[in-house]
């Protein structure tokens, strides 16, 4: 009996030691997985959106040696803006949509800059899919510099690892326009969706390239606009190979971050193989998002220097083909039109925007000389019945109307 108890005690001790070793070895992965699973929970979402780069693998981009600061000439916002047959109370809507930061730049001056829910000027906020528009800019620059010959080239010309995958036969242009034909479920409310499976891949630091290669074809490329975040990841792979040995992070720092005089550092999430999360892993301060928007408002010109080719920007925000047109469209799963990783809203004259999940926006109205940036951490994002998109467009257009008179 005594010997049996001793053996049981020793076995228990061995089990505890092994368990502790396993926890020690995999603690970081388990911690990241827990964050990924609870990322959008009401009590965690705000903090998660400004701290992910602390927990996950990331590359740092230092601030510019000579930071640029917009002059500040604040003006009060209106209390209401028109919305359908009624009005939208701005302060109520900002709270309802989980706003963390709101910036309005007009004529090169800051008119509005407000922070909520503990956010502040120096904090970095995750871009989510607004980061896709940064990747589009880098593609345009890489073409101008000869790293990429043409958007009519196939992705596999640069990324042979994707031969035989859903991206075999897909051109760079197809991916830019979200018309790759790749099957992908982007429902953030579905635990088993492709995008949430992808989130768990990120949590473990596993290969983003391998996940991209694992997807299957659904439609003929170039015929139907369907939002597939991994299209941008494939574009990131093209850039990565084209500019090698530089990294995407290096290229962003060299071509945009320092020339734009970004005031704060940025971080770009990556996997353990040093491949950046091209589809939306940037962490950037509110004002620095504003600088990127102001660059595009000015057709890629910044203080006399052409950072992004003007022709590329014009092509990026112009519908090209039936499947990219805004409105009810049999060739698109979206009501909004789509350019080269930029959204083209219904009823737009010259407006366009970068947009990320949970209500991240860079809204640009060139003829009114206004850029609006909105960061949010809205735990209600997946709830139906809020009419989020229509309300945000009413907010942006109402603010433009107010500040233009």
Automatic annotation (TrEMBL):
It comes from the Bacteria. Residues 102-374 form the Beta-lactamase-related domain. The chain crosses the membrane at residues 7-27. Keywords: Membrane, Transmembrane, Transmembrane helix. InterPro entries: Beta-lactam-related, Beta-lactam/transpept-like, Diverse_Enzym_Activities. It holds the Pfam family Beta-lactamase. This is Beta-lactamase family protein.
């Amino acid at each position: 009996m005594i010997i049996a108890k001793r053996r049981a005690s020793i076995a228990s001790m061995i089990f505890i030691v092994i368990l502790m070793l396993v926890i020690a070895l995999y603690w970081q992965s388990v911690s990241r997985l827990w964050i990924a699973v609870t990322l959008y929970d009401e009590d965690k979402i705000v903090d998660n959106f400004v701290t992910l780069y602390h927990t996950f693998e990331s590359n740092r981009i230092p601030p510019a040696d000579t930071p640029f600061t917009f002059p500040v000439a604040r003006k009060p916002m209106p209390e209401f803006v028109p919305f359908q047959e009624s009005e939208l109370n701005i302060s109520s809507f900002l709270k309802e949509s989980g706003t963390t930061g709101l910036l309005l730049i007009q004529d090169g001056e800051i008119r509005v800059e407000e922070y909520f829910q503990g956010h502040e000027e120096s904090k970095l906020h995750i871009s989510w899919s607004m980061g896709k528009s940064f990747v589009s800019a880098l593609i345009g620059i890489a073409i101008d510099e000869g790293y990429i010959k043409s958007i009519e080239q196939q992705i596999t010309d640069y990324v042979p690892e994707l031969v035989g995958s859903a991206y075999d036969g897909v051109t760079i242009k197809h991916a830019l326009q979200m018309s790759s034909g790749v099957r992908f479920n982007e429902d953030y409310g579905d635990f088993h969706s492709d995008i949430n499976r992808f989130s768990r891949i990120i949590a473990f630091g596993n290969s983003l390239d391998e996940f991209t290669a694992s997807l299957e074809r659904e439609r003929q490329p170039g015929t139907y606009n369907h939002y597939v975040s991994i299209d941008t990841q494939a574009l990131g792979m093209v850039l990565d190979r084209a500019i090698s040995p530089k990294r995407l992070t290096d290229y962003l720092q060299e071509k945009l971050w320092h020339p734009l005089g970004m005031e704060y550092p940025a971080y770009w999430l990556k996997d353990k193989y040093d491949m950046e999360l091209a589809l939306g892993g940037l962490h950037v301060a509110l004002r620095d998002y504003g600088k990127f928007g102001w660059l595009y408002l000015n057709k890629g010109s910044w203080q006399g220097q052409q950072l992004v080719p003007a022709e590329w920007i014009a092509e990026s925000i112009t519908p090209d083909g039936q499947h990219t047109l805004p409105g009810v469209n049999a060739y698109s799963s979206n009501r909004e039109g789509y350019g080269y990783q930029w959204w083209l809203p219904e009823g737009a004259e010259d407006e366009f925007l970068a947009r990320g999940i949970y209500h991240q926006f860079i809204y640009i109205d060139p003829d009114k000389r206004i850029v609006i940036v909105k960061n949010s951490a809205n735990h209600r994002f997946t709830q139906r019945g809020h009419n989020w998109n229509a309300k945000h467009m009413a907010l942006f257009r109402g603010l433009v109307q107010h500040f233009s008179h």
